[in-house]
Amino acid sequence: MTTITWTTARMMSLLLLVIATHAVAETSEVSIEQLLLMPGELTQGHQEIENECNECHESDNPSAQCLDCHEEINEDLINARRYHSTIEKAKIEQCRSCHTDHKGRTFDITSLDRDHFDHSRTEFTLKDSHLGLNCDLCHKPEDKNFRLESTSCNSCHDDPHQGELGEECADCHNEKVWKVNKFDHEETEFPLKGKHQDLVCQACHVDDVADPIGGMCVNCHLAKDVHFEVFGQKCESCHNEEEWQNNSYDHFKDANYRLNGKHQKLACVACHAKELNPSNKCNGCHSDNDVHHGSNGEQCQQCHNEKSWDKINFDHDKETDFNLLGAHQEVECDGCHLPGQTRADEERVRQCVDCHLPVDPHQGNLGKECQNCHQSKKWNEQVSFSHDFGDFPLTGAHQLLVCQACHFSADYAIESFRCIDCHAGDDNHQQTLGEECQTCHNSSSWTSWQFDHQQTNFALDGAHTDLMCDLCHTSQLPAPLTPPKRCVACHRQDDVHQGGFGDDCQRCHNTRRFDEFQY
Fold first, then answer.
1. For the chain, which ranges sit under pLDDT 50?
2. DSSP-based three-state secondary structure for 57
3. CA 343 to chain centre
4. I want to staple 192 with a disulfide (CB 3.0 to 4.6 A). Which of 55, 196, 255, 489 is the partner?
5. What is the reported pLDDT for 464?
6. Is 490 among the domain residues?
7. Residue 53 belongs to what domain range?
8. What is the C-alpha to C-alpha distance for residues 302 and 314, in angstroms, rounded to an integer?
9. How far apart are CA 39 and CA 57, in angstroms?
10. DSSP string covering 257-309
């Protein structure tokens, strides 16, 4: 048997491998040598150079030349900067000792432990709000590596100042709370005082531009100037930064016009809407509110005061010859002093009828001396006219009546004082008993009458004493006032004898009880 050397066997194996892979070699750009020598697929990041072994490997040095491509890492190691310069192993060993390739497309060549990565090895130590962030917020998934070109704030954060304040954000801001800055406005030409201290920067520095905006109030507040520049631009003459509404302007000292009463609560523009120095007379501001329309002159302070315009201090009793009494004290001024009246018109008002003639229920028939009966306390009550001195003194229930119950005409004249003149509709007798009502009735109570039948020629006794008058004095009788006295005149229908015993009923019967007889 022929002995086959190791070299021969190796060559035969290579020949068989070439034949077996011939079909693959025809459709692939990878050389046979590469197929024979490559230990496995490169990671996804190196995929594009997988067919170029010499990009990483030299013929005389099989070790990968990683730093030839990753120059930034090489510079970090040389200059002792950034993450790799803090790892001793990276300084003395090949990169592949940590970053092994040829293990497939999905292999994580970085072998980075995100949960336990020590960020302090980088040149950006995580502090405060940065500590809780997800890695992907800064290291974007689409980036090929975790290396950031810059660790400045604006490399991640949008700059609201648009570069106007430079790139040193840490001069004003910190990583704990971004919006709370440590910029010291006291170092500028406009130290913040009062309510300016509570403002956000953008309240003054609009569009996030921090250029100086001037130290005058009008630089910011001109659009809100309620004085419309009538008072000029020296706002600090009256206002301060502590409270804009409470100004320090002394109206009496600076304008010689003391603010009293309700004037103290007015906004400046209420008086100074059109001019800086308005008239200090009442009608300079209140002419449109003058209910007197100028008829009382311009010395408003003679009657009115600044505490309450409606409460006047005019003394009607002292200033005029018409004292206000009773209900007059509660009447509003314009209740008597009508709009358009002049002072001369008002001075002619002296008598009641000068005001009350239109409402005089007597229509002037009782004259103009109203005070003879009425008084100013209550017009319709406590009338002082005494009926006792007239033709008809009031007694009994008449004293409780109002005048109009009897006096129907405006002049209160009455032609007759007989009862029947007023009470004809109340006469239950329908005038069958005549018109001398007072013969039986009195004014105390109509139903309590005082007629004494015993004084007539027909004295009432027995059952007759309880009868109503109209049972005997009927309207059907020719003379109801004097009915017949014989029994049969009333009791003929009650005669059970039907006239058989005659008309002298009293021979057997009596007035006490009809069914008792004395025959």
1. 1-3, 6, 18, 20-28
2. strand
3. 46
4. 196
5. 92
6. no
7. 16-111
8. 7
9. 13
10. ----GGGGGS-HHHHSSS-SS---SHHHHHGGG-TTTTTT-S-GGGT--SS-S
